[in-house]
Design brief:
This protein is α/β, with parallel strands linked by helices and 190 residues long. 54% of the residues lie in helices and 11% in strands. The chain has helices at 4-9, 13-25, 47-58, 65-73, 77-83, 85-98, 111-115, 131-140, 153-171, 178-184; strands at residues 36-40, 61-64, 103-106, 123-126, 175-177.
Length: 190
């Protein structure tokens, strides 16, 4: 089984100490997990990177929603997104609804903004990332599609980050923090 330390090692270093401190302070019991645990948050937050370790920690199968979409469409997401964003979002919704129960899913950065209604009984887990790390990761990855090409890259990054932060804040108790998930895993704090 994966350990909490292994999961924490994969979290944005700029927020890792805060996540660890929250984890240590939380009780080891409480909420139960839904049929699917869905890692949500900003693009480049590290959801896909965390996916295998979180799934192993929880003893569940890992599924990356983007990989499942690519499998369903038979082409890379970047191409589909570039050709027809609406088609991508429709397929994203359809594929998510078909995912099996008992899994941990890494969802795309826009999932909460567009498909939060699909979560139902599933457990959304917000993966934190600082703006600085978000900016650095997206600036270094030219393969990711632009979301607002009419803006400068810097303006786009700030606007999208701020808009999605507001969405994450509105989720409130509908999403748990990564620290809460780690506490629910039953692993002892270190």
């Amino acid at each position: 089984m994966s350990s909490v330390a292994e999961v924490l090692a994969l979290v944005d270093p700029r927020v890792r100490d805060r996540v660890h401190a929250e984890y240590v302070a939380l009780p080891r019991a409480g909420k139960s997990l839904g049929p699917r645990v869905v890692l949500v948050g900003h693009r480049a937050a590290g959801k896909s990177t965390l996916l295998p370790a979180v799934a192993k920690l929880l003893g569940r199968r890992a599924l990356d929603l983007d990989a499942e979409i690519e499998r369903a469409l038979g082409q890379p997401i970047r191409e589909v997104f570039r050709e027809d964003v609406r088609r991508f979002r429709t397929v994203e919704r359809e594929v998510y609804q078909r995912l099996p129960r008992g899994t941990v899913v890494a969802a795309g950065g826009g999932f909460l903004a567009l498909h939060a209604d699909l979560l139902g009984e599933d457990t959304a887990v917000l993966v934190p990332v600082s703006f600085e790390t978000y900016r650095e990761r997206l600036m270094a990855d030219a393969s990711r599609p632009r979301l607002r090409p009419e803006m400068s890259v810097e303006e786009e990054l700030r606007a999208v980050y701020d808009e999605r932060e507001a969405i994450h804040q509105r989720l409130g108790s509908r999403a748990m923090s990564l620290a809460e998930l780690l506490a629910l895993s039953g692993a002892r704090p270190r």
